[in-house]
Amino acid sequence: MGQLSLRKHLGGASGIGFAAAKILSSLGANVHIFDITPLDKADADSNPELIFHQCDVTSWIELRSAFESVGPIDLVFANAGTSERTNYFTDVFDEDGSLQEPPSTLMDINLKSVLYTIKLAWFTMKQQKSKGSI
Fold first, then answer.
1. What is the 3-state secondary structure (H, E, C) of 6-49?
2. Are 75 and 19 in contact (CB under 8 A)?
3. Which contacts (CB < 8 Å, 24+ apart) does range 67-71 have?
4. CA atoms within 13 Å, Cβ hemisphere of 130
5. CA 132 to CA 134: how far, in whole Å?
6. I need a labelling partner for 71 at 20 to 30 A (CA). Which of 6, 18, 34, 129 fits?
7. Kind and range of the H or E run holding 122
8. Per residue in 2-50, pLDDT tens?
């Protein structure tokens, strides 16, 4: 495997994403993690090669800014994800007594952020005229 200069890793502050980030960095890659949840201090201290960027991956503006801040890329892992936390069978009403729109957090993180990541990674790789993987 060739030396990769930079990898971006979306949603890597915990779980499978963090495990993958540690593996990538152990292979010599500079790994940038975009996540809304900061790395645990002990994890950050024991893995200084992991570069954390606090970013709401469901926000186009924040994610685009994070991509622009790190320069050229070789690989991008769209790893953000969450489980369902909403009970859609419970009726919630606003102050006027109208039914409130249910939250879309699950779709925003598990789908929208992945689509945003693919678009930004693809655009970045085309701009730098290099092959990469998403």
1. CEEEECCCCHHHHHHHHHHHHCCCCEEEEECCCCCHHHHHHCCC
2. no
3. 67/8, 67/120, 67/121, 67/124, 70/6, 70/8, 70/32, 71/6
4. 14
5. 7
6. 18
7. helix 113-127
8. 344 455 555 577 778 888 888 888 888 888 889 888 888 887 888 888 8
